[in-house]
Amino acid sequence: MPEIFDGLWYLVGFALYVTGAICAATVAAWLYPRRERFGKAGSSIVIALLITAIWCLAEAAIGRGTMAAGLLESVRNLAWLLVIYRLFASDGRHTSLAPIRPVVVSLAFVEFLHLAVSYLLDRVVLNVQAEAIALQFDVMIRLLVTVGALVLVHNLYAGASRQSRASLRWPASGLAAVCAFDLNLYTIAYLSGNWPAEIASLRGLSVLALVLLLGIGVSRDREGVRLRPSRAVTFQTFSLLVIGIYLVAMVAVAQWLAYVGGDFAKLMELAFLTIASVAAMLVLPSKRVRGWLKVTLAKHLFQHRYDYRSEWLRFTRTLSNHGDSASPLAERIVQSVADIAEAPAGLLLTVDEQGDLALAARWQWPEIEVPATALPLRAVSFFEREGYIADLDEVRTGEAHAEIEVPAWLRDHPRAWALVPLIHYDRLVGMVVLARPPMKRKFDWEDFDLLRVVGQQLATYLAENSSQDALAEASRFDDFNRRIAFVMHDIKNLASQLSLLARNAELHADKKEFRDDMLLTLRNSADKLNNLIARLSRYRGGQIEALTEVEAADLIHEVVGRLARNHPVMVAECQPCTVTAHAESLEQVLVHLIQNSIDASEPDSPVFVALTADGLHGRIEIVDSGCGMSPEFVRSRLFKPFVSTKSGGFGIGAFEARELVRAMRGRLEVESREGLGSRFAIRLPLAAATGLYENFASTDQKVA
């Protein structure tokens, strides 16, 4: 029987060595024209593979123990030491790490020493005891070289930069497989004092592993064949490995107790097995132990794409930058997301008053054209409900979620890459559009998790900023109220002067001096009152009493006639049009908008007013060719209270005009270009369509 098993092990070893030789030679020939993919180590790897193939053939043909086989194994080891050194040189670490070259030279010296001693021992006849000593020396030298090579391979990969690891992963894994097998082989031989022929016959497996990993490393699609086991599979495999090691250890200890236990051997063996089984049943199913194993595996067997500490510090630093040269918060929000995804540019869309998404800021992306409604309300609801981070490449290929709706301006733009929703308390407050990075890549689960958390944090920043703006606006309104209090005080003083003047007139009306002084006082008081009325007429707060039918043409002619005394104001077109409005409020809106156009125009540049019927609305247009306004100012500042381009202005007129028009069920539209002028359009419902509006309003209330 032993002879049969020896024959089987010989056949297994022969087959594995021959297979390893064929594969090593084949990969060497295939790698030769592609050797530049391993940089400076390419040629060395080809030579080392050929030497490994020759060594495998020698082991298969003549077996271990001959001088030729030992010489070829030493040459093989020297060749792979040269490969390791050349891999260090591929990224320049052989010059910056001083100990690398001495270690390689020392290991090569040990191999040459081993060859010299083996040659001398081959020339003399040894007895059994001397042969045992020679075997121990041979194994110890091989073990020393193997350990040194394994340490070099570990430092080769562990000390490499993140960019270099991609090219070093596969050759380092192959070398580690060979070194790890030889380490176990020589360790068993050294401890047992005999050569483990059964294990040695499997050395061809390590050569096959080396060749396979090198082949993967040189293939063009090595990213596609990267081994990426799931964490569940890894945890289960590791659990089985732990259980197997536990059982082997338990059996080994039990056998040792049986050999040395004496009369109570059987009792001690059974007691140990019982105690060990109870301990396993209590410890292994524990959630704490399983949780610890999962965390340990996740930390040490899986490499995260991101350094979360660095990413969070950079994210916080970008948002908290608030110096004089710092970008506005909206742009910093875009930048913080773009930095994480390595995107070169981006946009921030925020929710407007109608619930649609509109452009709020752009970061390093001036060429993209964004419509007034960047994302309609019907598309916003899906992102708000699902928190979905959209990869626009998947949208273009039809792989994205079926319910997602992306407008054409985003879908057709070649640089548009991803949509990251910003959700605060289940409410979408904004969305970041990212431009495509220079290096094309796909999102993975780690990208989605990090961007989702960052989006929630940014949504909190936006909500907090909106709250601060609201508080600041309330504070400005409070200041405005205090100013009104001073105005009222002035009116009270004027009223007191007029009351005193009336009482004195009863006594001194017949005196010329008193009449002259009275006229002067009345004129000054009237001028002050007119100024106060002009100031107060701008701040009526948008409240209207009731809507009536108003002849818009008559009102326009009246306002234009009044303002044309000081500046050219012309009625370009005036169709008969009866609208539903509040006459005084509409007059106030017209006065304000026409006066703004006058202020923005040159003294001889006319302002044109037109009235037309537009469907169910009456349309009043005020057009000037003045200085105009930038799209940014129209979008974010024109209708903000207390923001004014006029020196000493309150900045509340445009805001109040829009609120008054809205209160009359209308809409105020603005078009402006810097240097060309502005167009204000007031759309009010026609009197004939009032019934339709009331029916729609009542229907909406019933549905609500």
Task: Spell out the key features of this protein.
Rhopdopsin 7-helix transmembrane proteins; alpha+beta; Beta-Lactamase; 11% strand; 704 residues; 12 strands; 5 domains; 63% helix
Question: What topology does this entry show?
Answer:
Elements lengths: L1 H30 L10 H20 L5 H24 L2 H4 L3 H23 L5 H31 L3 H31 L4 H4 L2 H16 L12 H30 L4 H19 L3 H15 L6 H13 L8 H13 L4 E6 L5 E7 L13 H10 L3 E2 H6 L10 H4 L4 E9 L2 E9 L9 H64 L3 H25 L11 E4 H12 L5 E6 L3 E4 L1 H18 L6 E8 L2 E8 L6 H6 L16 H11 L3 E7 L3 E9 L4 H14 L1
* Strand percentage: 5-15%
Indicate the low-confidence ranges by residue numbers: 220-227, 538-542
Across the major sheet, the strand order is 2-1-5-4-3
Query: What Rg is obtained from the alpha carbons, in whole angstroms?
Result: 44 Å
Helix % is: 55-70%
Name the structural class.
Answer: alpha+beta
- The number of strands is 12
Number of helices: 24
**Average pLDDT number:** 78
Account of the 3D structure:
The chain is rod-shaped. It starts with a helix and ends with a helix. It has five domains: 2-227, Rhopdopsin 7-helix transmembrane proteins (Up-down Bundle); 229-303, no CATH class; 308-470, GAF domain (Beta-Lactamase, 2-Layer Sandwich), CATH 3.30.450; 493-536; 548-703, Heat Shock Protein 90 (2-Layer Sandwich). Helix 1 (2-31) packs parallel to helix 9 and helix 10 (231-260) packs antiparallel against helix 11 (265-283). The protein has a five-stranded antiparallel β-sheet with strand order 2-1-5-4-3, with helices on both faces. A five-stranded mixed β-sheet has the order 7-9-10-12-11. 63% of the residues lie in helices and 11% in strands. It contains 24 helices and twelve strands. The chain has 704 residues and is an alpha+beta fold.
